[in-house]
Design a protein that fits this description.
- The protein is mainly α and 68 residues long.
- It is built from 2 helices and no strands.
- Helix 1 packs antiparallel against helix 2.
- The protein starts with a helix and ends with a helix.
């Protein structure tokens, strides 16, 4: 159980980084905000896209590693 949980946490960290980077570039490219686009992109990436990707990555990996 500990190994499964630990590996899932590592996957969550990796998914957070990947989700935050993808969210940053997505918002930078699609936002119509002209005054503080970089701030909007960084905050949205750090506090929305990253955590959502981490939770999804943790759940998917935790289920994937379940014993048969």
């Amino acid at each position: 159980m500990g190994g499964r949980l630990g590996i899932s946490v590592l996957w969550a960290i990796g998914c957070y980084i990947a989700g935050a980077m993808a969210g940053y570039f997505l918002i930078t490219g699609m936002s119509s905000n002209t005054h503080d686009r970089q701030m909007e992109a960084s905050m949205t990436a750090a506090f929305f896209f990253g955590p959502v990707a981490a939770v999804i990555g943790f759940i998917v990996n935790f289920i994937r590693l379940r014993p048969h």
